[in-house]
Design goal:
The complex is a heterodimer of chains A (about 350) and B (about 150). Chain A is built from 15 helices and four strands. Chain A is an all-alpha fold and about 350 residues long. Chain A has a domain of about 240 residues: Up-down Bundle (Cytochrome Bc1 Complex, Chain C), CATH 1.20.810.10. A two-stranded antiparallel ribbon of chain A has the order 1-2. In chain A, a hairpin with a 2-residue loop joins β3 and β4. In chain A, α6 runs antiparallel to α9. Chain A is globular and about 65 Å long. The termini of chain A are far apart. Chain B is of the alpha+beta class. Chain B folds into two domains: about 40 residues; about 100 residues, Rieske Iron-sulfur Protein (3-layer Sandwich), CATH 2.102.10. In chain B, the strands form two sheets. Chain B has a six-stranded antiparallel beta sheet, with no helix packed on it. A four-stranded antiparallel beta sheet of chain B has the order 5-6-7-8, with no helix packed on it. Chain B is elongated and about 90 Å long. Classes of the chains: A mainly alpha (about 350), B alpha+beta (about 150). Bound molecules: protoporphyrin IX containing FE and FE2/S2 (inorganic) cluster (FES). The site of protoporphyrin IX containing FE has 27 residues of chain A, from α3, α5, α6 and α9.
């Protein structure tokens, strides 16, 4: 029997109405200008997110989220399963790459000011994605369940306690009780592999639909001058360039993962003293150092409370940045760009300082 | 349909009855869910240790015990009595350790120090170590939260 492909496709299209999407893809254009390069950051994040999903599912086939079994199960993955050590290494490095790219993506948009009207909601969903990505990292860090990750998680989940009343509630929610125990590990695993993926997908769908709805932004000065910016067809020209970048990134990721595979320490002991050198993942270091420079007590409140409140204010301000920066071409817009530079310098200096 | 002088239409009235009812049903599920998610596990009020394990301690010596799901520290004072603390740092909850040579408690997380009485002396800890109340009762050594009397 000969299948008539045309008829087959028509049947599907009748049911699912996909033609408009394909039409859209072939008609979609990406502006070409001196800052176009940054358009590739968004989809490169998607590459690493995809790698996280594939390697994450692989690890979850053998990982055991329990007090007794966690460390051993990772040991088994690394020593018994074919290329298991590499799967773990790729998952760990790809998370670093993904978060680094999310930060670069954010900064590129900050400096090109493409969050300006009408893309405020795209920016805000983006900020949510940043927070969710960081929570992904935080929950994943505990899963190897060694003394270092145990202490880092004790510290991290204790920070909300600096806020009176609600803080204790948040800490108990995160820990599943007053202390970090085996229940915390099970809970973090559930966040990491079930709840956060659902959340990130929900936000991501909105983020990407918004990008499609508005099309890619053009540079501010061209928009003001009403200049027509040349454009590149999304399919196949832009995608071709994208794929080249993906392959290069994949090569770098694999090389680094092969050479610097993460180690595995002894399983955590809830009663053991905290080890030396407790520190969070690199992307939390500047926040960690910020907390550290505040004195224990500042008048009636703790220094920690002041630090946590300041950090929350900063995050909320960045979330609403498109509304704060409502005249991007004016003087305020310039100041906000410089604040971005100051923020980057601050984060780098504080991260290095925390390692000294 | 709207009756003369009524504030709302019949449709609006029925919508709010139905909506309010659905909302109330949903709300009635929230409390049991919240109770399940925020578990009932709390710190113990007291733990019972075997006194024989601690009776040979020298004045100034410090030992560990298990206080629920975190470590506890017990010290023999010069007069032979016991002093006990919860062995977690008052800064951000890391487990502290006793350094006999320095006669201080040390927290490696952010370099916090407490003297031999549990008083915070340097680093970020804002408060002294939390005190517990040891009490020798026959063969047993009870460690209790302050304010929790012996269960007779
Ligand atoms: C998991 C994280 C994220 C993913 C997967 C993601 C994905 C994408 C993709 C595929 C695009 C289109 C291509 C591009 O402009 O690069 C995009 C655009 C955009 N993203 Fe994200 N993004 C993420 C996080 C963020 C963050 C943290 C922000 C900022 C707070 C943000 C704000 C934006 C904005 C404003 C645009 C529109 C840019 C324009 O039209 O020029 N995104 N994102
Ligand atoms: S947790 Fe002990 S010094 Fe920070």
């Amino acid at each position: 029997m000969k299948i008539d492909m045309k008829k087959f496709a028509a049947w599907f299209d009748d049911r699912l109405a996909l033609t408009p999407i394909f039409k859209y893809m072939t008609k979609k254009e990406v502006p070409q200008h001196e800052h176009s390069f940054w358009y590739y950051t968004g989809s490169s994040i998607l590459l690493f997110l995809f790698i996280q999903i594939v390697t994450g599912i692989m690890l979850a086939l053998y990982y055991k989220p329990t007090l007794e079994g966690a460390t051993d199960s990772i040991g088994r993955i690394m020593t018994e399963l074919p290329l298991g050590w590499l799967v773990r290494s790729v998952h760990s490095w790809s998370s670093t790459f993904m978060i680094a790219l999310v930060m670069i993506h954010l900064l590129a948009i900050w400096f090109t000011k493409s969050y300006r009207k009408p893309r405020e909601a795209t920016w805000m969903t983006g900020m949510m994605l940043l927070v969710v990505s960081m929570v992904f990292g935080f929950t994943g860090y505990l899963l190897p369940w060694d003394d270092l990750s145990l202490s880092a998680t004790k510290v991290g989940t204790n920070i909300p306690m600096a806020i009176p009343v609600v803080g204790k509630w948040v800490t108990q929610f995160l820990r599943g009780g007053d202390d970090v125990t085996g229940d915390t590990l099970t809970r973090f695993f559930l966040f990491h592999v079930c709840i956060l993926p659902l959340v990130i997908f929900a936000i991501l769908v909105v983020h990407i639909l918004l990008v499609q709805k508005e099309g890619m932004s053009v540079p501010l000065k061209d928009e003001i001058a009403k200049k027509k910016v040349p454009a590149l067809p999304f399919w196949p020209n832009f995608i071709l360039r994208e794929v080249v970048i993906w392959l290069v990134l994949l090569g770098i990721l694999l090389t680094i993962s092969l050479m610097f595979a993460p180690s595995l320490e002894l399983t955590a002991d809830l009663m053991a003293p905290a080890p030396e050198g407790v520190k969070p993942e690199w992307y939390f270091l500047f926040l960690f150092q910020t907390l550290k420079i505040f004195p224990a007590n500042m008048g009636p409140v703790t220094g920690e409370f002041v630090a946590v409140v300041l950090i929350l204010i900063a995050v909320v301000a960045i979330f609403f940045l498109p509304f704060i920066d409502n005249k991007p071409e004016g003087k305020k817009g310039k100041i906000i760009a410089y604040l971005g530079v100051a923020g980057v310098i601050y984060a780098i200096v504080f991260s290095i300082w925390s390692l000294l | 349909m709207r009756i003369d002088n009524a504030y709302f239409t019949r449709r609006k009235f029925l919508n709010s009855i139905l909506g309010g009812w659905l909302g109330a049903v949903a709300a009635s599920f929230i409390s049991p869910i919240v109770k399940f998610v925020w578990p009932p596990y709390k710190e113990p009020d007291e733990v019972k240790l075997v006194f024989a394990d601690y009776s040979a301690m020298q004045p100034g010596e410090v030992k560990n015990f298990v206080w629920g799901s975190k470590p506890g520290l017990i010290k023999r004072a010069q007069d032979g009595s016991f002093i006990a603390w919860v062995g977690v740092c008052t800064h951000l909850d890391c487990n502290v350790t006793w350094l006999p040579a320095k006669k201080q408690f040390f927290c490696a997380c952010h370099d916090g120090w407490y003297d031999e009485n549990g008083t915070n002396v340097s680093g970020p800890p804002p408060k002294p170590l939390r005190r517990l109340e040891p009490s020798v009762e026959g063969e047993d050594l009870f460690i209790r939260k302050p304010g929790v009397g012996a269960k007779t």
